[in-house]
Write a structure and sequence with these properties.
Layout lengths: L7 E6 L7 H11 L5 E6 L5 H6 L6 E6 L4 H7 L2 E2 L1 H6 L4 E4 L5 E4 L2 H13 L8 E5 L3 H12 L5 E4 L3 H8 L6 E4 L4 H5 L2 E6 L23 E4 L8 H8 L3 E3 L2 H6 L2 H8 L7 H11 L2
Parallel strand pairs: 1-2, 1-3, 4-6, 7-8, 7-10, 8-9, 10-11, 11-12
Antiparallel strand pairs: 3-5, 5-6
Bound molecules: 2'-monophosphoadenosine-5'-diphosphate.
Length: 281
Amino acid sequence: MSAAAPPRAFVVGHPIAHSRSPLIHGHWLAAHGIPGSYERLDVAPEAFPDFVRGLPASGYRGGNVTLPHKEAAFALADTLTARAERIGAVNTLVVEPDGRIRGDNTDAPGFCAHLDQALGADWPARGTAVVLGAGGAARAIVAGLAERGVPRILVANRTPARAEAVAALAPGIGAALAWDDLPSALEAAGLLVNTTSLGMKGQPPLDLDLAPLPARAAVADIVYAPLETALLAAARERGLAAADGLGMLLHQAVPGFEAWFGLRPTVTPALRDRIVADLAP
Ligand code: ATR
């Protein structure tokens, strides 16, 4: 690769047509007049190891990794950030100048940066966080909350064993919570986060009474289609602060863009509006 070659990055998944990442990075490339590209790549699981091994010679500076490759990327990266190591999944690959491939997980800082913007940077002081769900998104979010100093993290999941495993990512402050015990846990919560797919278009709604939440509590959903889930509507109805799922998607993109294109971009209302317009039915 010549030093003057325009920087190139990608998002890789299977399928990949639905990914909004090209819109996000394309917006920033255009806004900053960077003559680079961000490409959508569909790579099947059986071809993914060769894809990663070929990156140093490909001319790509790196890219985002989405379903179903996040665990494979974790296993294939040459080095891992401490955060990716803890979470066990990689959503961002960076080809280092020496050809080694670094794996990072930017979902955790992305979620926290989103809350900083939506709720104010003092959100960890609201108190105990109750996290619903125990998939990959929950792992990243629990790690992020712990890193930011949330005093206690309770994880409730349909399959309780998975909740135990996710709570263990926050040693000393994390614990699994039985779904039936949610009402009493909500009484002492400062933050409620839905990481399940409940409430997503085509899925059943999340049926949870928010009445026990104290007035200081904020509610965050990672579902962004629809943007205004029944959960967030119920939170607003109660006068609680609410943070929608689009923010995490936008903010998780920031560290990758900075690593590949050399400039730290900002999540602006104009970017948000661009993606909201794309999500509109
Ligand atoms: P992701 O990696 O995006 O977080 P995932 O690993 O498929 O996705 O996790 C989805 C989460 O939504 C899980 O916590 C799942 O609960 P289980 O661990 O019991 O499967 C939760 N979930 C999905 N459908 C659900 C439903 N109908 N009721 C309750 N929880 C549900």
